[in-house]
Amino acid sequence: MTGLGRLPVVFPSEADERLSSWLARMATFYAMTVPEFVAELGLPGRDVFDLEWRLSAGEGALIAARTGVSEVALQAMTFQEITPDARIMIARKNRHRCAECQGDVQHKAMALPWTFRCLVHGVELRDATGGTLSEMLGADRITKLETRAAAGAAVLDAWARGEEQRALGPDEMLAFLTARHRRASPPNVSEQPRMSLGARRDYHEFLTTPIIRQALTIVVPEYDRVAPVLTKPVRAGLHSLAQGTLLQAFALTVGIGRIVEDPVNRAIDVLLTSDVDGQGRVQDVLRSWPLSLRRQISARFWRAQRDEREREIAEKATRRLQSHKPRRVQSHQYRYRIS
Length: 339
What we know:
This protein is 51% helix and 3% strand. By secondary structure, the chain is mainly α. Strands 1-2 form a two-stranded antiparallel sheet. It is elongated, with a radius of gyration of 28 Å. The protein starts with 18 loop residues before the first helix and ends in a 15-residue tail after the last helix.
């Protein structure tokens, strides 16, 4: 190829295809590497992922001249609508796979962690092991969680595109969800698989491994019940969503949807189940929340603690009365005339 004039064969882009995917497919057709093909388009040394992140007018004009594709169509294949703060969320390929999509086509939506269905075919995405969320969580549980997941995804999508500025943003909510509300502890009985005594001795190291305890498991208890114990903790802050598994990303998105619906009660739920050190860590995270919410949380948390103290005092008093209550029947019943 000479690098002059229009290319003899240009593939049409697929629905929602990203620029890097489109260029990679044509590079394969012309028996070139992607960097070689990008240089053939008149952009030597340019990284294809940088191009699809922000394609300048001059770069778009060069590609348009060689391919005949309009600059508007080229820009539609980039992530120009995504804000710089959200760039960490964009994966270099589809995060998860659709069973019906072509293997060499990478979609824009499927590079974002809050996408759980293929926008082209409408089917559930599969993780690296081939599992779907319905298989991991159960069909009934997924049906109940889909509304909250959709609400959380809408918040994340608006934040990524800079369309909506909330006082309580996804970064603050993710920091709360990934906060350690209790000290690390080994798997409890409900988290341990059923084992024989011999197997317990063989897996002693696993059974005594401390697991990080995060607020996510309180806000989304459905995740706590099905997630593998060793992979239950997620990374902190925005990295939790950017680098999490399909199940973790879904749980975090559901958690954001629940916080948006009722932030005060979600914070109270976590604080009430936290230990002393965990309460301090959670309170530190809550300092980034709006002042009005923090005041509501503090007032309601104080009332909840007072009610809990009163309940414990009442239970102790009841137990004390029961322990001193005189017996109304003899401890031994004897037959008549028998000593």
